[in-house]
Amino acid sequence: MIDLHIHILPGLDDGSRDTEESLEMARCAVAGGIKAVVATPHVMTGVYNNTREKILAAVQELRGVLQTHNIPLAVYPGAEYMLEPEIPRWLKEGRALTLYDGGKYLLVEFPAGEIPVYANQTLFEIALQGVTPVIAHPERNRRFIEDPDLLLSFIDRGALCQCTAGSLTGLFGSRVRQVAIDYLLDGCYHFIGSDAHGTGGRSPDLAKACRVAEGYSAGLGELLTMDNPERLLQGHAPARPPVLEKEVNKSKLGFLGRLWRKKFTSR
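User: That's the sequence. What structure does it adopt?
Assistant: Structure tokens below.
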């Protein structure tokens, strides 16, 4: 498996505190069947001012430490950007760090309790530069929880989505889990990432969430934790996840939800 979202670089954010914790996270990842990770420290103006150069240097250093300790985990560069209006400018100036440093996909998160008024315009401007935004853990955002149709509108404009593994296993509570499952069945997720911050509750574990996804559709867990992350590594677009049948009251789906289901189940 490949983990596209992990805070394993020591001392850069609220994830790994030091090299020893990074080593423990790496050992945990390998033991759980993860062969590669994309290190995605937070980039948040005024809080985590991690530059492209700083992240790349930290990745190189961690690679050397892992080699010294004979831990067979490949580490690639990336970042998790809090959505800010300045991101398109950073991309244009070559200052932003995309997943795998491949120049095609950018991991972004929204504030936990809101969808910023500038979200649509910023994502549009990111896409204008040939970069596809990947929305991290939408199931944990209060506005997406209250109105799931909002996420479908972003996907319909070309955004991709990444689910946090712990959301599918109940780590963040039953409501988040149900929203995550609903999004999974609606074909909203292109990837599952651990969003690991250590070796405790939020550890680098994809296996449990992979099994949850497989329980709904054979091959779905493999698609979201292996195939699609690998496709990004090779410079290819991810495969479209399937839309699965579920027992719903269609009158409660909302307009965008019905439109989404009609559009993508008719293909």
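The first strand starts at residue 2 and ends at 6.
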